[in-house]
Amino acid sequence: MKLLPAFRSALAALALSCTAIAPALAGEGHNHDAAPAGAEGQASPRVQAHSDLFELVGVVEKGQMTVYLDRYATNEPVANAKIEYEAGSNKGVAAPQPDGTYVVKFDALSKPGELPFSFTVSAGSDTDLLAGELHIEDSHAEEAQAARPWARWAAYGAAALALAAAALFARRQFARRRA
Q: What was the pLDDT predicted at 164?
């Protein structure tokens, strides 16, 4: 059976509208991609930097950064180092902790945004400059998205309207051709 050109156009319009709406129909937890490896949940914001001498990772939780410093070649923790930091207008020295980590505290670590970091690390006779970028997500952005369950139903409604309009258009075209 040969499809009428108008009916083919209506089907093409329907297919295009459905592909445009499809991403909106998939809600939270309805992703059919492969499951990510590791534990569920959101990782803490972190800054990473390394050189030939040192590897540094800073993990932000509850408005403060815990800094882990290792030798790059051996992954051996570096204790008793002096770590000076600069992040925008914030400057200081990371406080050494008994467990071998270092702590950095300032107000911007509890606010969303991008923050470039530079660290000057001195350990024994070794000194190096490390740089990295810290990105802190806005936790309220996810809450705002979750607070809009009507958006999925609006997408369903738009798809149904597109389908009804395509069917009506095809029916009218078919009736005109028969007359």
A: 76
- Chunked into runs of 10 residues, the chain (179 residues) has average pLDDT values of 58 60 54 53 85 95 94 94 94 95 92 92 95 84 57 70 76 78
Q: Sign (positive/negative) of CA torsion 69, 128, 130, 86?
A: positive
**Strands, sheet with 64-71, edge to edge from the N-terminal-most edge strand:** 46-50, 54-61, 64-71, 102-105, 95-96
CA distance 132 to 89: 16
Per-residue buried b or exposed e for 5-43, using 16+ beta carbons within 10 Å of the residue's own CB: ebbeebeeebeebeeebeeeeeeeeeeeeeeeeeeeeee
- Do strands 113-123 and 102-105 pair parallel, antiparallel, or not at all (unpaired)? unpaired
